[in-house]
Write a structure and sequence with these properties.
- There is one protein chain.
- The protein has 162 residues and is mainly alpha-helical.
- The protein has one domain.
- The protein has a 3-stranded antiparallel β-sheet.
- A hairpin with a 2-residue loop joins strand 4 and strand 5.
- The longest helix is centred in the middle third of the chain and has 23 residues.
């Protein structure tokens, strides 16, 4: 079980990193702009200094913290090779982000949070390539990579070390 655990955690971490930084999560209505973790990272100073509407301020800052943790979750999944708890926690983050993006693109259950998600993660495409947008069923390949990476990392973290 030990070798399978390591392989699952490493593949999960790599998929999470690819889904966060290399692949886009969704297309934007603005040309040469997509939603991705890279777009969030590049807009982070603007997002932090923005003053949200008081009616959604708590939700805004909650998502801000969740998205900041998401930026480091791929690397921190690898810590799951040594600590099960860290591996599980940082595998759940990309899984939760992926599920939220699936819900917002396929349903209307998240309502006004959809605009907040799109606004926080939208950014330009660098060098006309990064983040790469390959759209499947209305979602970018990054969503699928986050879901797969989070799932594999979670399974690997829950397996026994021996």
């Amino acid at each position: 079980m030990g070798a399978a655990r390591v392989v699952l955690i490493v593949i999960g971490a790599v998929l999470t990193l690819l889904g966060t930084y290399l692949f886009a999560l969704f297309p934007s209505s603005i040309p040469l702009e997509v939603g991705s973790g890279l777009g969030f990272a590049m807009n982070l100073p603007t997002i932090i200094t923005a003053t949200p509407d008081p009616s959604v301020a708590i939700l805004y800052y909650l998502f801000l913290v969740l998205f900041i943790v998401w930026l480091g979750s791929g690397v921190l999944q690898l810590v799951g090779l040594k600590s099960k708890a860290v591996g599980v926690i940082f595998s759940l983050v990309p899984l939760a982000i992926g599920v939220m993006f699936v819900l917002q693109t396929q349903t209307t259950i998240l309502g006004p949070m959809t605009d907040m998600f799109f606004g926080m993660t939208s950014g330009e495409v660098y060098f006309n390539f990064v983040p790469y947008l390959y759209e499947l069923l209305g979602m970018g390949l990054g969503v699928y990579a986050l879901l797969a990476g989070g799932t594999l990392g979670l399974i690997g973290s829950l397996l026994s070390k021996d």
